[in-house]
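ingest -> validate -> predict -> emit
validate: passed (alphabet ok, no gaps, 523 aa)
predict: started
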Amino acid sequence: MMLHKFVSRNRQLIENLAQSWQKAGAQGFALLDSRGNAVFGDGATTGQQLTMSLGQYGALRITVGSPEPGAVNGYEMQLACQAQLLTQILKRESELESMTVELMGAYDQLVAMYNLSQATRAHLDLESLLGSLLQETVSLTEAERGFVALQEDQVWKKVASVPPGPHPDDLIPSLSQVVRERGRPLVCNSPEECRRMLPSLPLRVERLSLTPVKVGGEVVAVIGLFNRPEAFTAGNQKLVSALAEEAGSIIERAQLQQQMVTQERMQRELEIAASIQMSLLPTVLPQIEGLDIAASCRPANEVGGDFFDFVRNEDGLLGVTLGDVASKGVPAALFMVVSRTLLRTAASLYVSPSRVLEHVNQEIYEDLSNVGLFVTAFFAYYDPFTGVLTYANAGHAPVIFYRNATASSEFWEADGPPIGVLPQVTSRDYGVPLMPGDVLVIMSDGFNEATNGQGEMFGIQRLQEVLSVNATQSAERICAALFSAVETFAEGTPQADDQTVVVLKVVGQMGRGEDRWTPDAWS
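emit:
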């Protein structure tokens, strides 16, 4: 092929060379291709033939009659020099042609990339961008038609086709899946080769190129080309592979953008949910003479499953509750709202803490069971007339009581499982008279299960020590001391669970309760 092109481009030069040999006494001159066919010359065979190789390109041959003694050697030397010179020229021509082809391919690639960058700046959507890329690919390769298929939810979907119109759409998923499993391009350049590789191909597909588009090493799309006029060359495939890399970048950017949009929307929704959730917690604590109250909640995430509340029933009792949904995030937040609402409702119906917890369990047991969750809950009534605290504990910990008379702290264990574990709550009511200086601290397990850099838990004992050291402080200071102690212990380890605490401290003798309530403190 190279020799044919050279003769076509340099015919006058070759004719001059042939004439020079005729003047030197040669009867024939020919350039032969690698198969021995004459590319130039008469191919005469009468007389003595002298042939010199042109390497991979062919041969140079002259025919002489009856040369004088010694003339043959002169012919051979001259022919050898000319053959060597032609070989070098043909080699340079071949290299120049390869460089030109490569340069044109690079130019085509640059033009395609420029056009794609212009399309990207136009803020086209993913399908439009892939359509523009496919248009460039089909145009540059001179394919009859092409497609781009994208995998979404394990299903192959054609997102672009050039030209628009009927395609072998029923074959696109299977072709794309073959390339995905193969992980590299698939090219066939004859009907027989294509049918051997893909027996299901229709007869009208004579040449086929399938190129994977990868994101993070995984095939997410496929570029398919059908029926180029000539065979798909290595240069064509190099160009398509470069465009496939660009397609991968386009898809990755689109995915990242979609993820960012989704994350931003979720973040806004979580912020709204957190705002709503925190608004459900009491913002104004009840004011009772002789009783100092503090409470606080620090969610580990935007929303959590911890809650605390204060309610007043018709008998003038102060209801105090703290609960913890055994989950995190949105599911915990949803059941937190439901549990809080049910506890408030039950507090208006019963004066027994265990009956309150039983009512909540009856209402929410089935829902919790269906999703495999449960709620630990501590509920107590404080009687401001008698100073007696009556409580029931459904699987909740830790609850620590500091008895001022003995300057010691007690850990109150739960006597029944959490809400949602069994159809019936088994917790009982317990009554404890509160005396001046006594402190009751109800916490979620985000305190005792807080860990440091070595994975060590804070534990119940440390909580008791913090309470004992700070028992003479106000309820607010005790609350702050607990948070501070856990934070210091964690040594920067991220908070893994919600931390919620309610502190009740007796600061004086109880008198007549009806004179010691502040009605405005209740919503």
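The CA atoms of residues 448 and 459 lie 4 Å apart.
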